[in-house]
Design a protein that fits this description.
Layout (H helix, E strand, L loop, with lengths): L2 H25 L11 H21 L8 H15 L6 H6 L22 H10 L10 E11 L2 E9 L8 E6 L13 E13 L2 E13 L7 E2 L1
Amino acid sequence: MGESLAAVIRPITLALWGAVLLWSTLSGRLDLLLRGVFHPLVGLSGVALLALALQQVLRGRQDQRWNRGWALSALLAIAVLAMPPNPSFSDLAANRNSDLGEAVELDFLLPPSQRSLTDWVRLLRSQPDPALYAGDPVRISGFVLTQPDGPPQLGRLLVRCCLADATPIGLPVRWPAGATPPADQWLAVEGTMGVETIAGQPRSVVLPSRIRPIPRPARPLEP
C-alpha cells in the first residue's frame, strides 16, 4: 500500500462507518435490528462520524504509517454496506428465553378479531383458561417459529431496544394435514380460537380457515 492511502485510511474508515449508520437509518435496515425510537440516535451518530472524517481531511497532515486495524475496519464497513442484514428470527428465537417477565394486563375490551398475535399471547398468559376464547375470531400475522418438541407456531419477537434483548412469543396453530410451513416464512392467518389437549392439559390453539404467505413487514419487531 502506498503512503498516500495510509495517510487517509483513518478519515476514509470514519466516513465509511458514518455512511453505514446513516444509510441504515434512511433505508429502513435498522427496522430489522432496532426499535424505531432509537433510529434518530443512530442517524446522528452517522452524521457525527462523517463530520469527524471531514475534519480529519481538512486538518491536512496524517500519520504516514500503515495501520492494519483501520484498513480491516474499512473493509468491514464496505461489507456491511454491500450485504443487507437478513436475520433468521426463528434461529434467534431458539436461543432466547420466552419469559415475558413482568405481569401482563388483561385486555378483553379489544375485539378478538382486532387482537394482534402479541395481544393474544399476553392475554392467554394472563388468563390461560381456553374456554374463555373458544370460537373467537382470530386474524393475526407472524413468522413460522420452529419448536424443538412439536409443530411450529406462529411467532413474533418483542424487543425493548434491539435484537440483542429480543423475547420470542408464539401461538399454537393447527396446521392443515401434511402442511409444513418453512421456518421464518411470514404468514397471515385467519380463523377461530379452539381448544386442544396436550399432555392432559387443555390449551388454546388457532384453527385456521385461511393461511396466506405475506412479505416480511417493514417493521417486524414489536415493543
